[in-house]
Amino acid sequence: MSKVLIALALCLSLLTGLPAMAADAEEQAQAAIDTRQGLLKVVVSYFGPIVGMARGQIPYDADVVKNNAGKVAVLLPMIPDVFRKDTRDSGLETEALDDIWESMSDFQAKTETATERALALAAATEDGQEAAMKAFGALGAGCKGCHDDYRQQD
Ligand code: HEC
Q1: What's the CA-to-centroid distance between 83 and ligand 1, angstroms?
Q2: Per-residue DSSP letter, 116
Q3: What is the CA(113)–ligand 1 centre distance, in A?
């Protein structure tokens, strides 16, 4: 191909790319929503078994609590990252409230609080079931502390 043809091909691909980009905006917003909801599903997959133990539905197992709390502490700091994309104007279904993108520093602070409590829970497993369950209550309050302000209530 001559240089002129290459330049022409580039121009055409740029032009035809424009409408595709508009359609992509919705796809990108949906992908961001899927990603953040997916992260929180992983969080609850580690959190859930400890709920079962707190309710006496499954036997208390300090090793599982320690491992799961540690995993939650690794996952939670990803929250601000996966919420970076502002989906307020997407019109797509989500439980995320608009305030997230108006108060990102508070949203981050709430992430840090919950993360510290997950680490505290992992540490508390060394002090017996009662201490661990108390620390678990604090972690649950950390999740709720963010949900109260930034997640649509049922
Ligand atoms: C800093 C804020 C924040 C923290 C901390 C937080 N969440 Fe959430 N969570 C949200 C938001 C916002 C949504 C809604 C996301 C959406 O629908 O796009 C959500 C959604 C969820 C969902 C629903 C996911 C789905 O299926 O769509 C679960 C489950 C969940 N959170 C569990 C937890 C648990 C358990 C913790 C604590 C260990 C926690 N969250 C901590 C903000 C937070």
Answers
A1: 11
A2: H
A3: 14
Per domain, the residue ranges of the chain are 29-150
Prediction pTM value: 0.89
Q: Is the CB of 72 under 6 A from ligand 1?
A: yes
Query: Please, which residues have CB within 8 angstroms of residue 1's CB and are 6 or more apart in sequence?
Result: 9
Ligand 1: residue whose CA is nearest its atom 31? 40
Sign of the dihedral defined by the CA atoms of residues 75, 139, 48, 124, in that order: positive
In the 3-class helix/strand/coil scheme, how is 11-47 assigned residue by residue? HHHHHHHHHHHHHHHHHHHHHHHHHHHHHHHHHHHHH
Nearest CA to ligand 1 atom 39: 143
- The pLDDT score that the predictor gives to residue 20 is 64
d(CA 139, CA 114): 6
DSSP 97: -
pLDDT tier for residue 108 given thresholds of 50, 70 and 90 = very high
Distance separating alpha carbons of residues 25 and 68, to the nearest angstrom: 36
Alpha-carbon span 41 to 139, nearest angstrom? 16
Domain 29-150, CATH class in plain words: mainly alpha
Could you tell me the two tokens for 33? 């929503």
Partners of 96 in the β-ladder: 151
